[in-house]
Amino acid sequence: MRRVRQTDGSAGDVNYGEIGGSYSRYRLPDPVIAAQIHVALGDARSVLNVGAGAGSYEPLGREVTAVEPSASMRAQRPGHLAIAIDAVAEDLPFADASFDASMAIVAVHQWSDLEQGLAEMRRVTRGPVILLVCDPALMTDYWLCDYIPEVREIEARRFPAIARITAALGGRVEVRPVPVPLHCRDGFNEAYYGRPEAFLDEEARLACSSWSLVPQAAVDRFVRDLSADLESGRWDEHYGHYRSQPFFDGPLRLVIGTPADGRTDDCHNE
């Protein structure tokens, strides 16, 4: 069953016109993560970015076509990036095999039909289909779950299982872990594993959409409890080692699907 698009065009379960105003400031591309994505893109010259948002991780120096259903997110794209097309993953307005590669960065959980969206990406892509996702099976292995399990439970329900993604992609699929650096510039929840004070910033929280789906009473409890534990030193007593841990290997995964025959050598044909 397809979701009805939100008032600003958002195709998922949140209205980015209401919560997405801080994305361009808090969800900046992290160079460590970007490097993994760009390696996965290989020598692709034309790239489709599905659910492109404000443009994080779009590779410079390549011909990028961006698709983003939310008017609010399209408006936040910086001027040096291509204007995004208003469309959804499940109905891409492109001919077969139009692009060398395609990517969807932390976007598949907003689609109404995962299988249809991936089928569309595969249809319009000659080479690799690259997804940055979270593995829902690994959501609870993080200290944040001790303070506000509601956020992690919601995230685990929203993200499709890795096995479902790989089955839908078909062909050859590789799943790579994506360790999060301590000073990660991309403000998803795991980015603050060693900087808990960041979670006390409401705008930082809302730059991760799952927080908007949690009852306000749970958020208020979280802010109260975390503030008290940071002031008393209890958080550091239990989790302080994260402040100097260079990487956190959490649920973030890079999924790379290539055609069944493995051929990408003709991806530059016109």
Can you list the strand order of the major beta sheet? Answer: 2-1-3-4-8-5
| Overall residue-averaged pLDDT value | 90
**The biggest beta sheet, please?**
6 strands, mixed
N→C terminal distance? 36 Å
Q: Give the % helix.
A: 25-40%
> What is the string of helix and strand elements?
HHHEEHEHEHHHEEHHHEE
Can you offer a commentary on this structure?
- The chain has 270 residues and is α/β, with parallel strands linked by helices.
- Helices cover 31% and strands 14% of the residues.
- The strands form two sheets. The protein has a six-stranded mixed beta sheet with strand order 2-1-3-4-8-5, sandwiched between helices. Strands 6-7 form a two-stranded antiparallel ribbon.
- The radius of gyration is 19 Å and the shape is globular.
Keywords:
single chain; 270 residues; alpha/beta; six-stranded mixed beta sheet; two-stranded antiparallel ribbon; 8 strands; 31% helix
Topology:
Elements: H1 16-19, H2 23-26, H3 31-41, E1 46-50, E2 63-67, H4 71-75, E3 101-105, H5 114-124, E4 129-134, H6 144-147, H7 149-158, H8 162-169, E5 172-177, E6 180-181, H9 202-206, H10 216-232, H11 234-239, E7 247-248, E8 252-258
Parallel strand pairs: 1-2, 1-3, 3-4
Antiparallel strand pairs: 4-8, 5-8, 6-7
Question: What is the structure about, briefly put?
Answer:
The protein has 270 residues and is an alpha/beta fold.
